[in-house]
Amino acid sequence: MTELQFPTNSPYQDRIFDDPPFNPSAHLALEMPSKLFTLSDLGYTESKPDLPTNIAATSCFRVLSEEGVHALYHVCKQLEAFTTSNARIARNVRGGVYRSGFLRALALSPEIAEHMSTVLGAELAPHGMPHQLAHLNYQPITPGENVDKWHWDTLQVDYVMFVTDPNTVEGGEFQYFNGTREDFTQLHASNQSIPTDRIIAPKMPGPGYAVLMQGDHVVHQARGIKSGERITLVNGYTYKAHCAKDFSALGQLVHADEKQTVLAEYTRHMSLRCQQQLLHNVNTPNFNADAATHAEALKRARRELDDAIDKLETLQHEDMLHFGD
Ligand SMILES: [Fe+2]
Question: Under a CB-based contact definition with an 8 Å cutoff, are residues 91 and 83 in contact?
Fold first, then answer.
């Protein structure tokens, strides 16, 4: 699979007017995080053979140079005209990758994907559903209202990056829960507030810094701000490893995006995953394997399609999942 593949058509007509070219050598300043939290640190004890990494979340590390931040902010300000809202997030832009070539190239950047793969210790590819790329959160119109409520993601892996300077506003922290999804669900069900000593708020040195996490395992939220501006970008990835089953929460995504767009992008994403499995056989046939091994390789590709067909044919209404503020 080539990471730069992108649909040649679009569900949207409007694009931004002033779209700078993305230049990785000028716009990126990739650094490693100083601290890693594992799934075990968060309390996940059962072994997860379908997960290619045990790293759950990182401390904050630099992704963009000053020039990169400047260019991204310029793009985000133009995309602000396209904000939508849902039950969880007051103002966000999804699908901005269709409207801006800069945002698209940033989201699909092989340099960033490779760096994030190194940080996580597992090979990643930019997500095949373009609305899961470069999701943008803008501060709500109502001062103090949380930007995003406690939740876990409809994505396996994503990074959350500050576009604006987190140190020039009061509040607006990105926080994650030091515990499992089940722990959080239990606390919430028993109407208990989240103990402050179980909240991790990674220090955000400035704009262009990010946290990488297994978004579907780490419960997190984004706090509100009293005044000023707060924009963050969330970019999604999918595991390349054969052991990793896809995790696409279709029933949740239809609350955020047009249903027909979700269905088309999901079909695209699963086709890409299947293509990736088959391309492995196309480009590097295993000359030393027996019949059973070859059959298994083909079954893995078929599994992607079987999973997708099953999910499409059994899609039912779900309420949007979140835990409030
Ligand atoms: Fe999230």
Answer: yes
